Amino acid sequence: MPRKEQTLRNTTTGASTEAAIRTMSNDDNLVHERRQFIAGRALPLFVRQGFNRTSVREISQACDMSIGAVYHYLGSKDDIGLLVAEQMRREMIEFMNHAFEDPRPVESLRSSIAEWCRLCDRLKDNVLFLYREPRNIKEAVQKRIAEVDEQCISMFDKVLTMGVEAGVFKIANTRLFALNVYVLGNMWAFGRWYVGKFMTLDEYIEFQTDALLSSALNRR
Amino acid sequence: MPRKEQTLRNTTTGASTEAAIRTMSNDDNLVHERRQFIAGRALPLFVRQGFNRTSVREISQACDMSIGAVYHYLGSKDDIGLLVAEQMRREMIEFMNHAFEDPRPVESLRSSIAEWCRLCDRLKDNVLFLYREPRNIKEAVQKRIAEVDEQCISMFDKVLTMGVEAGVFKIANTRLFALNVYVLGNMWAFGRWYVGKFMTLDEYIEFQTDALLSSALNRR
Amino acid sequence: MPRKEQTLRNTTTGASTEAAIRTMSNDDNLVHERRQFIAGRALPLFVRQGFNRTSVREISQACDMSIGAVYHYLGSKDDIGLLVAEQMRREMIEFMNHAFEDPRPVESLRSSIAEWCRLCDRLKDNVLFLYREPRNIKEAVQKRIAEVDEQCISMFDKVLTMGVEAGVFKIANTRLFALNVYVLGNMWAFGRWYVGKFMTLDEYIEFQTDALLSSALNRR
Amino acid sequence: MPRKEQTLRNTTTGASTEAAIRTMSNDDNLVHERRQFIAGRALPLFVRQGFNRTSVREISQACDMSIGAVYHYLGSKDDIGLLVAEQMRREMIEFMNHAFEDPRPVESLRSSIAEWCRLCDRLKDNVLFLYREPRNIKEAVQKRIAEVDEQCISMFDKVLTMGVEAGVFKIANTRLFALNVYVLGNMWAFGRWYVGKFMTLDEYIEFQTDALLSSALNRR
DNA sequence: CATGAATGAGGTTTCATTCAT
DNA sequence: TATGAATGAAACCTCATTCAT
Q1: Is the separation of the CB atoms in A8 and A93 below 8 Å?
Q2: Is the CB of residue B32 inside 7 Å of nucleic acid strand E?
Q3: pLDDT recorded at residue A16
Q4: B6 contact to strand E (CB, 7 A limit)
Q5: How far is CA C169 from the centre of its chain?
Q6: Band of pLDDT at residue A1, cut at 50, 70 and 90
């Protein structure tokens, strides 16, 4: 599906967010690896205690590193937010590149919902962080995230539109419907209503897909 | 519908959160009024800049008060979070006491969705605050909020279950469906995807209601 | 014993400490009465929590008065310290005017020790306050207190000297011995070593008097 | 005199107060050294101005450190009080372990009085602080201090009792007599009556020892 | 590369005192 | 005379960041 990829490449090309982060090291691989490590250890702390209530000292301790070492690979605490955002972005782009292999609308919608929910489940903490701490992510990076959000929604929109054009779906507002799909993935990640307490991820995917399809399918 | 009201009363009774907040004044009316005023001025700041990035000095300035005056009516900055939560809670209880006058499932669902969305629209900032800053709200108060959330979802659940029992709806998992209704209200409040940019609240309510109904309705 | 009284009058004459405290009222009796009341309620708080850790609000509440009322009779929180000091001073002067009716050295020492201990017991809190919070009493007032301290010690000194001159006592350094008598009174007031836990005031007086006498008495 | 030492060790064992103080550093030696330094610079300020009237800023300036550096080694301003108390405690334990080598009651009393007075002279400011600012020392630490106070008094008591049993002393209440010895040391540290103005420490020790002995000695 | 001591601006909070009512 | 809301300076403390080692 080269068309899609081009579209994506067009809008997401540009200096990688990560490359903009200051470091004292020249070993790119090491830098990347250490940053992922730090972000991975910091993120649960952010989710549990909040970004502002988590000190760099705590982060360095969670990493079994010195404070100086953390700053060796990062320019500032805020940069960890960028890494979290960037990881989400990377995975979403990955997701968009691999979903929709199927040209059949129903199958395509099914698989994209499932994949999307699985992605949100895997990056639960990133999703939460992006909801909760937008003020701790640089405006520019928020925009980059908004962009992939938008692309993601557009992708769902396209699948739906395709289905509508094929006469398989009947949807009054595909854009809003696509947004619903998007939110439904995030919703699983939100621990707030304990969805995970009374349902497995697979059941969740199944029920939600069925509900959406029963609403979208064109009957006549 | 007295049964519902009783249920609600039973679970929501308890010492008001507000009464637990320290104050230097004995004039209850004044205290309440000033607190609402302070919370009202502070909330937009929190939403715009984040709770931690908003200083008490800024809040006092936004209120045209001295810092000391703010602390005359509040025990701490965190207490403003409680007020925000409490306001949401109050309005949700109010909402639950007045919705669903209609015994017809479809009408009842329609009106409850509409009212719920309007409530979320009205308390947009409170909704956002509760999503973003849970770590700045005392555990106990988060629980109180979770309680009304739960009651609210249960309420939607009951409407749906009623409809299912009446043979009007056909829903695989009413609980999850109810959760979808709940989230759909919050979703409007979330500026993140700019739903409001391409749609009015009324349109949003209409489209979403239709989509949900088309999914829920039992077609023989 | 007019000689003594003259001495005292000479050094203690001067503007009363209390008269120097600002007030909004002209009714001298009322002012005095209220001040004693306030000081009496505040002193235990100071002893229990410390002067600085006791707020004017707390004091006003302990007095069942408004903050404004407290300031109606006092110019500042510090003034309460002055009142405490002044009360001690007044009682010590009173004490000095009435002790020593007896010309016999031993009897005179006995009674003055006993009276002094009883005074310290009665003004326990004042004694403690003067030890603990000298930095919260104006320099000038500290000096006035030091003056009566000095007079008190001198008084004991005189009794001892009289005894030495009469050949009844044999004391190497009457000044230091007098100081010991003084401290022994304060010592009772100091809860720190729980003297009061294993001894009544009367026993304390008896033992201490005997010990001092057995040290002071001239044997040959 | 191994029995005494054992007794002391038994009751004074326990987690060091200092170990309970929070620090950002892991270098125990550095932490201890810096804390002693800070406490040493702060204590005279406390004595001169009072604990509450001395700000952390002043302390940090007196130490030629930044405020942050002070908090790097201490968890709070109050902790300096603990250090002051702990230093007194340490020295008193040291004192108790080394005094009383002499089995002759009179010599033993003489030397213990002298050593005690010298200790109080050396730790003048600590003594004053403990008298004046008990409300700024955690209850638990006050208790630990009360414990060594008690041990110290008991130690004097034992010496006296030994003398009484040997028929050398005749004392009605050794416990109270011991307390007098204790207080007499503190009394020197109290600047309040300017004992130091008209007497050297050695003279003070001499006079007080003679007075006590002349009271304690058994004259058939 | 790594460490962690040091910095100090800036945050929250307290509280003596004033003054309009 | 009495009230208590309001003030705002100043206190304690945190923590992101730097930099000498």
Answers
A1: yes
A2: no
A3: 67
A4: no
A5: 27
A6: very low
